[in-house]
Specification:
245 residues; alpha+beta; Alpha-Beta Plaits; nine-stranded mixed β-sheet; globular; A/G_cyclase
């Protein structure tokens, strides 16, 4: 490998540590163009993670074309659902998981992200019906959502083009962890942090009626505190699936 110039490295670290870093507290997280190596933002964020259950079994299947078709079908449409929102600040794939991170300074924006979880949960019915018709294995996912104020920092190596935002707080890490619970060990597919739940429940009841609150199960997790899980589908979408697939 090329030798690491530790003398120049020491100079770069000193420059970073000596620079005055501006932490900007702002309800709405700005677009990438506003981030520099001399600032960071503290803003309201909601994150959604969609994690395939038992992916190691699927990935170990020797029929590689079959596995490729399943993963591409899944990722194509989950990304399509997640990307159609003006509040989107990052979208990506981590192994067997697809995620979206959004600026959500308003309750209505948090509800929009929650609604995506219902679209994805209903989409999984459509996908599995189509997989079954092709004699392919079906899959399950866990869908995790979390909301919090997050410190967001542009990190990487200045002047190299190698950089990314680092999300410091509960919104991203907890959504990822909650997605690993969904559709497993007694939890329903959609798992919400307490903060997400308290910000969406009033609007959900307004849309679906007083009884709809009972569609969520509350529990206390040793690591993640109070959480809510549910198996929610969109009626119009589901009816179309039943009639057309």
């Amino acid at each position: 490998m090329a030798e690491y110039d530790y003398i120049e490295g020491k100079k770069r670290i000193d420059e970073i540590l000596d620079n005055k870093l501006e932490v900007i507290e702002k309800d709405e997280l700005p677009n990438d163009s506003d981030f520099t190596f001399k600032n960071s933002y503290f803003s309201w964020v909601t994150s959604i993670f969609v994690d395939i259950r038992d992916s190691s079994i699927l990935f170990s299947d020797q029929d590689k074309p079959k596995v490729s078709k399943i993963i591409r079908s899944f990722s194509s449409e989950v990304i399509e659902i997640l990307r159609k929102n003006d509040s989107l600040r990052e979208i990506g794939i981590r192994g067997d998981c697809i995620y979206g991170i959004y600026t959500t300074e308003l309750k209505s924006k948090i509800y929009d992200i929650f609604e995506m979880s219902m679209y994805i949960n209903t989409f999984m019915k459509m996908l599995n019906k189509l997989l079954t018709k092709k004699s392919l294995p079906t899959i399950k996912v866990g869908i995790g959502l979390s909301t919090s104020k997050e410190l967001v920092v542009k990190a990487g190596r200045k002047d190299t083009g190698i950089n990314s935002k680092v999300w410091i707080g509960e919104a991203v890490t907890k959504a990822s962890n909650l997605s690993s619970l969904g559709n497993k060990t007694g939890y329903k597919p959609i798992v919400l942090s307490n903060n997400t739940y308290i910000n969406i429940i009033d609007q959900f009841i307004e849309k679906c009626g007083d009884n709809s609150k009972s569609w969520f199960d509350q529990s206390t997790h040793n690591e993640y505190g109070i959480i809510y899980d549910a198996n929610l589908i969109l009626t119009e979408f589901n009816d179309w699936i039943e009639k057309n697939i």
